[in-house]
Amino acid sequence: MKIQKLLVVLLALSSSAFAQTDPAKLAVAREVITAMQLDKMFDGMAAQMKQMGTHMSPLPPDATAEQRQAASAMQAKVTDLSMSMVKGMMSKVDTIYADVYTLPELNAMKAFFLSPEGRSMNAKQPQVMAKMMPLMQEMQRDLMPKMQQLMQEAKAAK
């Protein structure tokens, strides 16, 4: 009897893993993602990450032009790899949206992002990101010495 109950519970828990996403919801989720212009947002983020990477370079001030060029090339490769992985993840966002949001919620999101206000929000995102970038750089600048201190303290404690 206990084995039967256990099997029923396991079957109930695992059934969600086999559940298929409703094709209608998936289609609307894709429309929402298109209306949100997520692809443009990530392309803009990539450009800003590249720019930020060049300003945050760990090269010494007396680095040669060759060293700077090599560091810049490496930073570009890291950024491109990171953004490629993010875009791969983004290809699954439609399924996530369809699983998390109800059809009425997806339709409301789509209506908003296709409205003048939603389009305005999308158009202004680069401005928002540009204003956030200095804050993020400042946070990284402040965080690095603290992280280094924590690492030194951990090494000393060993």
Q: What keyword list fits this structure?
A:
mainly alpha, single chain, 87% helix, 158 residues, disordered N terminus
Walk me through this protein's architecture.
- With 158 residues, the chain is an all-alpha fold.
- 87% of the residues lie in helices and 0% in strands.
- It contains 7 helices and no strands.
Number of helices: 7
Proportion of residues in extended strands? under 5%
Low-confidence stretches: 1-18
* Total beta strand runs: 0
Could you describe the largest sheet, including whether it forms a barrel?
none
| H and E string | HHHHHHH
> Shape, please?
elongated
Kindly provide the radius of gyration, computed on alpha-carbon positions and rounded to a whole number of angstroms: 23 Å
Mean pLDDT: 80
Distance N to C terminus: 53 Å
Helix content: over 70%
| Structural class determined from secondary elements | mainly alpha
